[in-house]
Design brief:
Structural class: alpha/beta
Number of helices: 9
Number of strands: 7
Distance between the termini: 9 Å
Number of domains: 2
Largest sheet: 5 strands, parallel
Order of helices and strands: EHEEEHEHEEHHHHHH
CATH class of the largest domain: Alpha Beta
Strand content: 5-15%
Helix content: 40-55%
CATH topology of the largest domain: Rossmann fold
């Protein structure tokens, strides 16, 4: 255990991610004396959720880093759907390995924010990839077995949940909605309930990049 009573502020993309942090990540990391506080990014005054421009991302991350310089600050944003002006994102090549590309995007964010307490993290390719860690959890939401089997077949074509494509048709959330439309309007509800059903241990076993980020937070 770290044993340093470290505080970590997490700027997240939306309500689902905020609840995920509160319900799964925060309880786990308290065992390491690491204490999390999530905040949903603002899109405009009085409105939260979603990434509309790199400028808004950079300003809000930098501001929180400066406002609470004694804490660490990290991010939980999806690679899928990043603003087109995010440095380096326009060069993303779906035919090339994703790991070095997402790492480069994180480096660009860190360089733009330029604060020593920032730990940038981008979810490859989006939050719903975590739900593909154990598709049997969808039985909990009464999703038909035939639908689950279809997702299993799609997952088998990829190297793992984090490697599922990020196009408007094949991103993890798009795959879920295509076969289970109810998810679209109830993501904050089902997105977290399914993650709780799967459990953080299984998610980390199947999503190794996500696991590395959690390990980094454990060691603060």
């Amino acid at each position: 255990m770290a044993g340093n009573h470290t505080r970590v502020n997490i700027l997240v993309e939306g309500q689902t991610e905020e609840t995920f942090v509160r319900e799964l990540l925060a309880p786990h990391l308290t065992d390491f004396q690491v204490y999390l506080t999530p905040r949903i990014i603002e899109t405009s005054k009085g409105h939260k959720g979603g990434l509309v421009s790199y400028g808004k991302i950079e300003r809000q991350v930098r501001l929180w880093c400066k406002q609470d310089s004694a804490a660490k600050v990290t991010t939980l944003f999806d690679v899928y759907g990043l603003p087109s002006d995010f440095p380096g994102f326009a060069n993303w090549d779906a035919n090339q390995p994703p790991l070095p590309q997402v790492a480069a995007l994180e480096v660009n964010l860190a360089a733009g924010v330029a604060q020593p307490n920032l730990i940038p993290y981008l979810q490859l390719h989006e939050y719903e990839a975590l739900l593909f860690s154990d598709l049997t959890a969808f039985e909990y939401a009464d999703v038909p077995q035939a639908t689950i089997n279809a997702w299993q077949a799609e997952l088998a074509q990829c190297a793992g949940p984090e490697y599922m494509n990020n196009s408007p048709f094949t991103a993890p959330s798009k795959r879920i909605i295509a076969r289970w439309p109810s998810y679209k309007s109830a993501k904050p509800h089902f997105g977290v309930l399914l993650a709780l059903e799967i459990g953080l241990t299984t998610i980390r076993q199947k999503c190794l990049r996500f696991d590395q980020w959690v390990s980094t937070l454990e060691g603060l």
